[in-house]
């Protein structure tokens, strides 16, 4: 098992899993004041976590484009996509805490952002203290979801979040 830790998010990956925590630069701009008194806008960084039981390609989108096309019927792909901290108060993110126990009934082929024949997906929105996330999971086979979901739950059980840093 390997430990993955960055940007206040940590996970322990089972043997054979791959994972990355990277930062996007597309957040809402912060207004900063330079020493000269000039106001400057700078985008806040937001992490995105990719966990998979197959090798992740270097080039992939936030929700798995470039990776989900490579999945076999025994593969799973997990995304934790962080939104701006203010979103944690929005109704969409009202669920407290990462869902850690998914069931086969939670998965549906129509949930996929990009429908690929045979695959199935699940999406959930939640908050951790001061942080708002989307959990997006793709299974390589809808027909094999009863076997694949426990693998997802095993890795979700290891994910931890640090509170949002002070603004």
Summarize the structure.
With 167 residues, the protein is mainly beta.
Integer count of domains: 1
N-end to C-end Cα span: 34 Å
Strand content: 35-45%
Low-pLDDT runs of 5+ residues are none
- Which H/E pattern describes the elements? EEEEEEEEEHE
Structure in words:
This protein is mainly beta and 167 residues long. It has one domain. Helix content is 7%, strand content 37%. It contains one helix and ten strands. A five-stranded antiparallel beta sheet has the order 3-6-7-9-8, covered by helices on one side. It has a three-stranded antiparallel beta sheet with strand order 1-2-10, with no helix packed on it. A two-stranded antiparallel sheet has the order 4-5. It starts with a strand and ends in a 6-residue tail after the last strand.
Secondary-structure map:
Elements: E1 2-6, E2 9-13, E3 18-24, E4 29-33, E5 39-43, E6 46-52, E7 76-83, E8 120-128, E9 131-139, H1 145-156, E10 160-161
Antiparallel strand pairs: 1-2, 2-10, 3-6, 4-5, 6-7, 7-9, 8-9
Feature tags:
mainly beta; five-stranded antiparallel sheet; three-stranded antiparallel sheet; 1 helix; 167 residues; globular
